[in-house]
Specification:
The complex is a heterodimer of chains A (about 300) and B (about 280).
Chain A: E1 6-7, H1 8-22, E2 26-30, H2 34-37, H3 40-45, E3 50-52, H4 57-69, E4 73-77, H5 80-86, H6 88-96, E5 103-106, H7 125-130, E6 136-138, H8 143-155, E7 161-164, E8 169-170, E9 186-189, E10 194-198, H9 202-215, E11 220-224, E12 227-229, H10 233-242, E13 245-253, H11 258-269, E14 274-279, H12 289-295, H13 300-311
Parallel strand pairs in A: 2-3, 2-4, 4-5, 5-7, 6-7, 10-11, 10-13, 13-14
Antiparallel strand pairs in A: 1-8, 6-12, 9-11
Chain B: H1 6-30, H2 36-40, H3 42-52, E1 67-70, H4 76-86, H5 126-139, E2 146-151, H6 158-169, E3 175-181, H7 190-193, H8 199-205, E4 209-214, H9 218-228, E5 236-241, H10 264-276
Parallel strand pairs in B: 1-2, 2-3, 3-5, 4-5
The complex binds thiamine diphosphate and magnesium ion.
């Protein structure tokens, strides 16, 4: 499994189906996007445990909450912008305030949604979820990690979780031996010159950037911070202390996401400059996924340039 | 179906009076909170907690219990009075309403108070939650029923109508909801703030079984609850015509008592009125 390029949403669909087979308490909810979020696979296999709520995200979160109150383990899915935006207050008031065992797994996050444009590209969802007490926020980097995340949050963790998935195919980055643990970052390597703290699709970009930099004699480390909350502060501190330039990379606004989380911690415990790569306080737009990544500077090239500049 | 006995009705009416007294005392001690909407739904909640619902104060999480969701969470004092008088917690706790460290939060909090199924306070969300519980109970093959209380101003929230569709779509006949139709909200009469009529026709159009009753007629409440249990494949909405502030002449129909607690003088007068009522 660990070297197949695939969209994280596809991995989710498969994982959910398998989970449904072995756990009868799993119920799945969707808001008329089950074909896109891939929950439809579960729905087809277990129609009695699948609730399509129609285009009604707020009601979906309430319904998921109610199901959790009867001991079911609900997974509620739609696009990230609708899940976290339209239903934010329902997530706050019911799921988080009462600390319910509801899993929110949203797909189509970030600009790699592509042609649908800004209305469908969530670049602020991490911020919206991260601010909520009791919420755990996870951004898997590839299909292999996604499968592990889904199983872990179902089997090993009670409480609200937000999982951020994407639409487009992403290269596989995590090694076969990798075991996901909530709150534990994966260190590919620590760099002496620079360290890139990345999440989601930016992990593969960070790896590519580090390779280029290495050829230029710049020792660059890469860390997959797939759990954004709670942050793996131990690893973060080590990364900050071991290098000259610390960079964060995310397919999200630089306001409120991974870069902010890293800065918030370091500003109090080890104040060093944090160079943030991400979306600059703006909306997305239409285009192909590859075009948009270039347009917004979410490429290995941009990471390389940023680090070189910072090292000067 | 056998109608409720006169003796039961008399007993429940006495109980409702007790609830009203506790609500007023609680609010006066707290010196803040929602008086009008707690009193208007007191008869409905009495019928549920002291007659209709199967629940066990000694075992609040009993799997087969019936559930009550107070969607209009600002009527917390009413729920607290019902829970305290049922024996979920000591009556003395009611004195701590809205105080720092109290499990009796300004709006119901399920993490701090046993018997509260889910935290509420942000209007428009309870019916969705009730739907989820009803669906979960059905999946488990349990015969438990779910009750949910909404305000008439609250039904201006769009999510209520999302939930209305969902309950009908999934044929949640183990769900019975109430609209406490007291005609008032914060800024005035519901139909001046945002026209909500025809309430009965709306719920019918959304695929619900609807009863239109006087929400202070204890026999009517109990009979509607009994009948709701016999309905198959449809959720039931009981539109309860009520009076905001019901039971206390100087609070009745007064919009300003939505979120105002009684003064100690008002409390004295109010308790006297309740004592003299029916004597
Ligand atoms: C989402 C939301 N918006 C606003 C409020 C503030 N609020 C509290 S009670 C209320 C009026 C409710 O009127 P109604 O549902 O008729 O309640 P009742 O008359 O039964 O007290 C409002 C607007 C709230 N609690 N939740
Ligand atoms: Mg009202």
């Amino acid at each position: 499994m660990a070297n197949k390029s695939m969209a994280t949403r596809d991995a989710y669909g498969e994982a959910l189906l398998e989970l449904g087979k072995r756990r009868l308490d799993i119920v799945v909810l969707d808001a008329d996007l089950s074909g896109s979020t891939k929950t439809g696979k579960f729905g087809k296999a277990f129609p009695e445990r699948f609730f399509n709520i129609g285009v009604a995200e707020q009601d979906m979160i309430g319904m998921a909450s109610g199901l959790s109150l009867t001991g079911k383990l609900p997974f509620a899915s739609t696009f990230a912008v609708f899940e976290t935006g339209r239903a934010w207050e329902q997530i706050r008031q019911t799921v988080c305030y009462s600390n319910l065992n509801v899993k929110l797994v949203a797909t189509h996050s970030g600009i790699t949604v592509g042609e649908d444009g800004a209305s469908h590209q969530a670049v602020e969802d991490i911020a919206l979820m991260r601010v909520l007490p009791n919420m755990t926020v996870i951004v898997p980097s590839d299909g292999y990690e996604t499968t592990q995340v889904i199983n872990t949050i179902a089997d090993e963790y009670f409480g609200p979780v937000y999982v951020r998935l994407g639409r487009s195919k992403v290269p596989s980055v995590m090694p076969e031996r990798y075991r996901f643990k909530i709150g534990k970052a994966h260190v590919f390597n620590m760099g002496k010159d620079a360290n890139i703290i990345a999440a989601g699709i930016m992990v593969s970009m960070a790896i590519a950037a580090a390779e280029i930099l290495k050829k230029n004699g710049i020792d660059t480390g890469v860390i997959n911070m797939s759990t954004i909350k709670p942050l793996d502060t131990k690893t973060l501190l080590k990364a900050a202390k071991s290098c000259r330039v610390l960079v964060t990379a995310e397919e999200h606004s630089v306001i409120g996401g991974l870069g902010s989380a890293v800065s918030e911690f370091l500003s109090e415990h080890y104040p060093v400059p944090v160079v943030k790569i991400g979306i600059r306080d703006e909306f997305g737009c239409s285009g192909s996924s590859e075009e948009l990544l270039k347009f917004y500077g979410l490429t290995p090239d941009k990471i390389v340039k940023t680090i070189k500049k910072a090292l000067k | 179906m056998a109608k409720v006995s006169q003796a039961t009705v008399i007993e429940l009416k006495e109980k409702a009076k007790e609830l009203r007294k506790e609500i007023l005392k609680m609010l006066t001690t707290a010196q803040s909170g929602h008086t009008g909407g707690s009193l208007s739904a007191a008869d409905i909640v009495t019928a549920l907690y002291f007659h209709k619902m199967r629940h066990n104060p000694k075992d609040p999480k009993w799997r087969e219990r019936d559930r009550f969701i107070l969607s209009k969470g600002h009527a917390a004092p009413l729920l607290y009075a019902a829970l305290a008088l049922s024996g979920y917690f000591s009556k003395s706790l009611m004195k701590t309403l809205r105080k720092l460290g109290s499990p009796l939060q300004g709006h119901p909090c399920s993490r701090t108070l046993p018997g509260v199924e889910i935290s509420t306070g942000s209007l428009g969300q309870g019916l969705s939650i009730a739907n989820g519980i009803a669906a979960g109970l059905k999946l488990d093959g349990l015969g438990s029923r779910v009750y949910c209380l909404l305000g008439d101003g609250e039904i201006q929230e769009g999510q209520v109508w999302e939930a209305a569709m969902t309950a009908a779509h999934y044929k949640l006949d183990n769900l019975c909801a109430f609209v406490d139709n007291n005609g008032l909200q914060i800024d005035g009469h519901c139909c001046d703030v945002m026209y909500i009529e025809p309430i009965v026709k709306k719920w019918e159009a959304f695929g619900w079984n609807v009863f239109d009753i006087n929400g202070h007629d204890m026999a009517a409440i109990v009979n509607a609850l009994d009948q709701a249990e016999t309905v198959r494949d449809k959720p039931t909405m009981i539109v309860a015509r009520t009076v905001k502030g019901k039971g206390i002449s100087f609070f009745e129909g007064k919009v300003q008592y939505h979120g105002m607690a009684p003064t100690p003088e008002e409390l004295k007068k109010a308790l006297k009125e309740l004592d003299e009522d029916g004597k």
